[in-house]
Amino acid sequence: MGKIEEVIPDEEIERLAQQSGIYERLPADFVPFKPGVEQRQTAQAHAWANYSDSEEDEPDDDSDSGDDGEDDYGADEYSVQGTSAQQVMEDANRDGMNPQVEEAFDVIIWTMPFGFLFLLLDIMIQQQYAQHPSFLGEMTKMLANVPILGTFVYITMPKKGKDQPLLQAGLFLVGILSGCSFLWVMAKSDWEVVMRRTPPLGTVWVYSIVRLHLFPACVSLAIVAAFVRFADLNLRIFNM
C-alpha cells in the first residue's frame, strides 16, 4: 500500500510560519508569494497603462518642442537631417587627407611593387646569361631607374575620374608597344641588348596591363600574341 501524503492547507502553513517567527526576520516590505505575484502583476499593468498614455501624448509635445525630443543615438557630423549628398561629400573631402599628400602616397604605393619587379627581371636576365649581379650594382640600377618609373606612374595616375578614356587609350598603346618590343628583343637581339632593355620594357608592359580595364587589357595581349605569331619570333611558348 502506497504512502499517503497529507496536504497541509495554506492557512495552516501561514499560521505555522507566524508562530515560528520567520516573518520577523524578513524585510518590512516582504509579502507572501501568491499575494506578491498578484501585486507585481497589478503594478506592471498600471505601469504599462501609464507608459501607453505617455506615448500617445508625446507627438503633441514633440511638435511644439521641435527636435529636442529626438533620439540622437549614433548621430555624427554627417547624419544631420536635411544635409544634401553634395554637402556630405564636401565635408568628407574637407576632413580627409590633403589631395597632394594622398596623390604622393598613391605614387609611392604604385611605384614600390613595380620597382621590385624591375629588380627581379634584372636579376633573372643576368642569371640566364650566367652573370652574377652584385648588391651595389643592383642598388645603382634601382636608384637610376626607380625615379623614372615613379614619374611614369605619376603621369598615368587617374586624376579624380577625369580623362579616363584618354588615359586608357594611352595605356593600351603603351601595353602593345612595350609587349611587342619586349618579345622582339628577347627573340632577335644579342645578349647585351637583352640584358639592358628587357627589365624596363617588361616592367612597363606589366604595369600597363595592370592599369588597363579588363577588356582592353585582353585585347592588348591578343594583339601582342598575334604580332609574335605573324613576326615568326622563335619563342618556345608559341611553338607548343
From TrEMBL:
The chain crosses the membrane at residues 107-125, 166-185, 205-231. InterPro entries: DUF7719. Pfam families: DUF7719 (PF24841). This is DUF7719 domain-containing protein. Keywords: Membrane, Transmembrane, Transmembrane helix. Residues 168-233 form the DUF7719 domain. Residues 53-75 have a biased composition (Acidic residues). Residues 34-77 are annotated as: Disordered.
